[in-house]
Fold:
Amino acid sequence: MQDTSRRKFLKSALLTGAAAALPSSFASRALANDPVKWASLTPGFTVLVTEYIRHHKLDQKNGFKLADPIVYTSVPTYYNDFVAGSYDVCIGSWDTFATRYLAGVPIKMVCNISTAQMINIMAPKNGAKSVTELRGKTLAAPQSTGTYRIVRAVVQEYMNFNIEKEVTIQNVTNPAASVALLRAGSADAALSWEPNITKGMVEDPKLGVIFNAGQLYKEKNGHDLAYFGVAARNSLLEKNPKAAASINAVFRDCIAGILQDTAGAVAIVGERTGFDPKVLQDAISSRRLHFHFSSMQDPAERKALTAASQFFARNKLLPSAINDGFFA
Structure:
């Protein structure tokens, strides 16, 4: 899945106390090893995640060290370099990682940090009230993205409505452009994702959400549909058997901290996400930008992601469902 964006990490003086919480042999070995290589993708909302981790030195608090992140502005290059082994830990969409894994790339899924509830379709409040009311109308959408394909599959499977047959799709290059077309009156609705949704409603209060992909999926399946997560290369996980637990701890603490004090978290990153801080704070506080940490060391979360992969395979979003080898 190629979508908007992803990001960076950390070091500290509380090392001694953090290391004491771990088995002494592991703590000394982890801190003596070379820093774990990772990357950031800018702009985008995940800059908030990486900068929060860096600011609070969550790597060192959890017994290891992340190197200065490699900064990317190109999504394809960001993923391709991870596949090539240029860095060890990557933040991205879980199905992108699943596609690479199924193609034989030596990576594993460590955790998820957000859900598909951040994917929405917007329309004017005096316009269509549901996806089916878009029949015969125009929907602006970035058709090249995995996000668009998720929406198409969810609507087809759970609403028996084929948006490509029933609706005219106006293709755009990114999620901000679809909202821009809607605001300009060149489309009847727009498919996008947060924080673009909140930004659009803040700038034009006449707009509202008529469809939430993650919400419909959860209603039908009883569990969230994961969206952005964290993967690691097998070489790192084999070199350090406790790396997965440490990475899980970093992102668990990060998401908990952002949700506990959203204003404080947004203040750390300022405008480096490419969005006004007030927009980002509103997106998170409203739960439209739905941060939710889930570890792949939890059997229930593995089961949920496996079920999601079966849905994806059934709708030709993945070549096949994932297996247990995908999980760290």
The longest strand covers residues 107-114.
